[in-house]
Design a protein that fits this description.
Elements (H helix, E strand, L loop, with lengths): L16 H18 L6 E2 L1 H13 L9 H11 L7 E2 H12 L5 H4 L4
Antiparallel strand pairs: 1-2
Helix pairs in contact: 1-4, 2-3
Length: about 110
């Protein structure tokens, strides 16, 4: 009684729809903060500061090489189209913040 029977709203090992939406909001914020050129993709000039900020949060200084940036861009480019888009950043946020199989909740391929 009084229990939510919607399986998409119930918590499981992969999170809930609310968690997926929160991960998407974080991705949007990342894209807004680091996507300085205002386009629909993150360029290498955008990715290097992302990497530096991640290390800064761990009290480390890091200056990524071109190879480091290219390698990380390939990690971020979840669909392999050679561009880092908001959808790519959303997918990686969902994977690491909600769970590797979050596509089971969203119905998408993450």
């Amino acid at each position: 009684p009084g229990m939510n029977t919607n399986p998409l709203r119930q918590s499981n090992t992969y999170g809930t729809n609310d968690q997926v939406e929160q991960a998407k909001q974080i991705a949007k914020k990342i894209f807004e903060v680091f996507g300085k050129r205002g386009g629909y993709t993150l360029e290498s000039q955008d990715i290097a500061p992302m990497m530096q900020e991640a290390y800064k949060c761990m009290n480390r200084t890091f200056t990524p090489s071109r190879l480091d940036v290219e390698s990380y861009a390939r990690v971020l480019d979840r669909d392999g189209d050679g561009k880092v888009t908001l959808a790519d950043v959303e997918a990686i946020c969902i994977k690491y913040l909600v769970g590797d199989q979050a596509g089971n909740i969203t119905g998408g391929n993450i």
